[in-house]
Write a structure and sequence with these properties.
By secondary structure, this protein is of the alpha/beta class. The protein has 26 helices and 16 strands. Among the domains are: 276 residues, Glycerol-3-phosphate (1)-acyltransferase; 83 residues, no CATH class. Helix 10 links the parallel strand 4 and strand 5. Helix 13 crosses helix 20, helix 21 crosses helix 23 and helix 21 packs across helix 24. InterPro entries: GPAT/DHAPAT (IPR022284), GPAT/DHAPAT_C (IPR045520), GPAT/DHAPAT_LPLAT (IPR041728), Plipid/glycerol_acylTrfase (IPR002123).
Length: 643
């Protein structure tokens, strides 16, 4: 349909600033007010203790406990004891008093840090409606630690049921704060639990019990971790599988998935992230670290926009795609690995949801300015750009991004030069004005890149087409799209659709003319195409430099651990010699993604290495498994030599 093809026809809700009321009335009264949220089917939510016993008595857990006993020879009581302590370590203990404490403290913090927190009220109303009808899963984007505190704060403000939130174990190590988070609805999960059947069974049963009984909306981050680059990450499927399972097995009529887009005008962790990408280790989560971070409170972080997207019904997603009969063939409580068609359905749904998050992200003028400033930057040279030239380019880019359907918040009744200068002053840590020109270096460039990345999803498809224009257009487009599918959110199997969307946008904006035989760049399209190809150039150069490193330097096999430091050394050498244009290629995120793409395309292969072995005749000669993953160039396949 045209609405799908023309992003300008997308209708988006208006925002209202919730801090306005907080600035005009008592925070204490707000924290102590009557809180009576609507609940699922009017049920009385079960207490945390009841929830635990429901999990421990479930058929599925009993089945797995007996299975573990058979496999390990342990006593049933012993395994049951372990299941119980896993649940103790994991479970939340939601208490309204803690929530009220947070409501009071966060009001103070938010008013200090942010100019406004804007929320789409219509999205809140849709959520209110859907919470009463079906189990709800909230899926916020994840760019900052602030995300889940902010989500609970908003739901409390609007009198909605507080969510239970999947949090990483690392938070539990924060004395006091970990417990506070637990009491405000966080439940803690290990970052990875490999083949631990019992852990997986307790975890999945716990989440499903909360969901089926409408205990509270379940909230987790599809991307699995904070994005250090402000680009959406490839979605993780574990938790999404778990929350869809009750629908597949017919235990609930439907599940509503609500994508939530949280956009920060200035990210609190901005310089931390840039340093992490350059190889400075991430500080461990600790309460003292949090207290030291107090100096953050004296800064101005602009505004936040939170957009609650359209609820997505799992039932309607699955229609015509999933045959639920397969779940009737064995008893529900017997765990079963998802079949191929279920896996691909969950994967496609995850991509659709992350795309929905991206499309409702609000872009600030600074995102456009960062994109322009980076294109003007050449490594090793201190080049600036004149302010009035930057303003002219920003207005041009503002209009282009609107035609591409960007959700742009540009103050309407302010002269563009003022919009530009106020954006620059908010981000004065990243840019400075010297006699009307702007200068910026690696930490700063990576920080700017993370702002530019917020706009990538708007330009990505046309940019892939622009980069493919002087060759076999469709083939090059699909090669690049495939190459970058670890880097950007590109829905599996949607190559033709993406190609058509890119053609449509470039033709609509008069940059291309498409005849039966060829694709022509128009006179006025030249500027657009230069901008679009420059948007992708740093990524192309990043992938090329990794390929060069593997061909020239990595003659010996490399372990996965050695890869990033070795690539970094190689890149620094080339940057200093002036052979690389973009400082951005130093980003470890870019290097990891390019390695993942080369592995996926078969240009590099992984060999699991062993040291020592089991000797059947030499007693005491035990196998030492040093699971080193060795990376080796695959000689036969070299898709990039042509690129």
């Amino acid at each position: 349909s045209l609405v799908q093809r023309d992003p300008m026809l997308k209708k988006r809700d208006d925002f209202e600033d919730i801090l306005e009321e907080r600035r005009n009335s008592s925070d204490l009264r707000y924290a102590l007010r009557c809180y009576a949220p609507v609940v699922y089917k009017g049920l009385c939510p079960s207490k945390a203790g009841t929830l635990k016993s429901m999990v421990l008595q479930s058929d599925q857990l009993h089945y797995v406990i007996h299975q573990v006993c058979r496999e390990t020879g342990r006593a049933v009581d012993d395994v049951q004891e372990e299941a119980s302590s896993i649940l103790e370590e994991m479970a939340h203990r939601l208490q309204l008093s803690t929530v009220r404490f947070f409501a009071f403290t966060l009001s103070k913090v938010f008013k200090t840090l942010f100019r406004s927190i804007c929320v789409n009220e219509e999205g809140i109303q849709r959520l209110q409606q859907v919470i009463q009808e079906h189990p709800v899963v909230l899926l916020p984007s994840h760019r900052s630690y602030m995300d889940f505190l902010l989500m609970s704060y908003l739901l409390y403000t609007y009198d909605l049921a507080l969510p239970v939130i999947a949090a990483g174990m690392d938070f539990m190590g924060m004395k006091f704060v970990g417990e506070m988070l637990r009491m405000s609805g966080a439940f803690f999960i290990r970052r990875s639990f490999g083949g631990d059947k019992l852990y997986w069974a307790v975890f999945s049963e716990y989440v499903k019990t909360m969901l089926k009984n409408g205990f509270a909306p379940v909230e987790f981050f599809l991307e699995g971790t904070r994005s250090r680059t402000s680009k959406s990450l490839t979605p993780k499927l574990g938790l999404l599988n778990i929350v869809m399972d009750p629908f597949f097995k017919g235990e609930v009529f439907d599940v509503s998935l609500v994508p939530v887009s949280i956009s920060y005008e200035r990210i609190l962790e901005e310089s931390l992230y840039a340093r992490e990408l350059l190889g400075v280790p991430k500080p461990k989560e600790s309460t003292s670290g949090l207290i030291k971070a107090r100096k953050v409170l004296s800064e101005d972080y602009g505004s936040i926009h939170v957009y609650f997207g359209q609820p997505v019904s799992v039932r309607s997603l699955a229609e015509g795609r999933v045959n639920r009969c397969q779940f009737n063939l064995i008893p529900r409580h017997i765990p079963k690995k998802p079949s191929e068609d279920i896996h691909s359905f969950v994967n496609d749904s995850a991509y659709r949801l992350v795309r929905a998050q991206e499309e409702n992200m609000v872009l600030k003028p600074w995102v456009l300015l960062a994109s322009l400033l980076l294109q003007n930057q050449v490594s090793g040279q201190k080049r600036g750009i004149a302010l009035d030239e930057l303003t002219e380019q920003a207005v041009w880019l503002r209009d282009l991004s609107r035609q591409y359907g960007a959700f742009l918040h540009w103050p309407e009744h302010t002269p563009p030069s003022e919009v530009v200068s106020s954006s620059l002053s908010l981000h004065r840590g990243l840019v400075r004005i010297s006699e009307g020109r702007l200068l910026s270096q690696a930490v700063i460039i990576l920080s700017c890149a993370s702002y530019r990345n917020q706009a990538l999803h708007v330009f990505l498809r046309p940019a892939l087409l622009a980069s493919a224009i002087h060759t076999e257009v469709f083939n090059s487009f699909s090669f690049l799209r495939n190459m970058f599918s670890n880097e950007f959110i590109l829905c599996p199997g949607a190559t033709v659709q993406d190609f058509e969307e890119a053609c449509y946008l470039l033709v609509k904006t008069g940059a291309l003319q498409v005849t039966q035989q060829e694709v022509l760049v128009t006179e006025r399209g030249h500027r657009t195409l230069v901008f679009l190809t420059s948007m992708l150039d740093p990524f192309l150069q990043g992938y090329q430099v990794v390929c060069r490193f593997l061909c020239e330097e990595a003659t010996e096999a490399l372990t996965e651990k050695q890869f990033i430091p070795a690539v970094r050394k190689f890149i620094i050498k080339h940057l200093l010699a002036g052979r690389l244009r973009y400082t951005e290629v130093l980003s470890s995120d870019l290097q990891k993604n390019s390695l993942a793409a080369l592995l996926r395309l078969g240009a590099v292969r992984k060999i699991k290495g062993y040291v020592g072995f089991d000797h059947p005749y030499v007693p005491g000669f035990k196998q030492q498994q040093s699971m080193t993953v060795i990376l080796q160039l695959n000689e036969e396949k070299h898709p990039l030599e042509t690129a």
